[in-house]
Task: structure prediction
Amino acid sequence: MNSRSNTTWNRLLIKSWQIGQIRIHFSLLLIVAVFSLGILILASTQPGMMELRTAALTLPVVWLGSLIVRTAAQQLCLGVHAQDCETLLGPCGNLSTDYEFLPWSSNVRYTLVGQGASAALAGVGLLISAVLAPEENSSLATILDFQAGFESRAWATQIMWMNAFFFVLHLFPAVPFDTRALCYGLLVRLPQANIQVTPYRTLSALQSHLAAVLMGAGVVLASLGVGVGLDFAGWYASFAAAFYLFVGSRWEDSRAKELESHYQIQSWQSDVVHSTVAAPAARSQANQLVERAEAAAEEMLGTGNYVERMDEFLDVDEILRKLHREGKAALSAAENAVLIDASRRMKARQRKKTN
Result:
């Protein structure tokens, strides 16, 4: 029973629905539903928050509408490239990282347009809230005050705060937030970038440093709150952001290691194939070198005793591989002598067999 329920839950976690070129991930519907239910329970159990009951209905609508506008703007800015990358809509935006295969300029536009769409919606909500604010009390605090209900000003304040939340959230340079696309697009332009490994390594380091900064800020705020007896808002959010960035940095590091391992395996396979194909040619070149240097080696060595002693420490096959890799100029006098001696012995055996 448990295995069946786990299988069903895993299928739900990866389930998505295709709508045009956009796929809706199951997590989006799950998070929105849980968020709405949480607001409804909070409003029902806390007497001072009864007015938030309507927000349990309106905020999910604003949430989904804001995501649709943001994603549609990003797809329009990508143009024909939008067909080359997957758009998987999650709770805070696109969960896919297919932008890594796009030109770096597309990554920059993708991020700036997404952030611009959220900022524009937040600005529209702020403007409408300012226009509809009561004239007798039109202070900044009143304009920014979150309103629940179905009237126009309530919708405006919800649009303002929801899109401001999206804008701040996507400033984090981690998956699945859009600033990561901007950083990735700029990092691949670096001249020292090693295919995709360098951007992942740099993103991992950046996220680790930001996690340390946010963790320190959270500790400072919490300590001040305990010391002066005040509750500084935001220390728990700082801890949560630091933890998320740390996890994101480990993910970036694992991607870099995976790519490095993949390239090393490919390089090793290529070297093996190349060495196997080129081995006969290398041996032929070695034999020609041995024949040309035979007479000179006779004069230099005098007897074969020195070669026999060196042959105990030098492997002929290893010398041949070195000859293939680096050329005959890389061989030392002792290595040349070993090759010459090996050729002599081979010729001696062949003569004995012929006789």
Remarks:
- The first strand starts at residue 16 and ends at 19.
- Residues 76 and 82 are 8 Å apart (CA to CA).
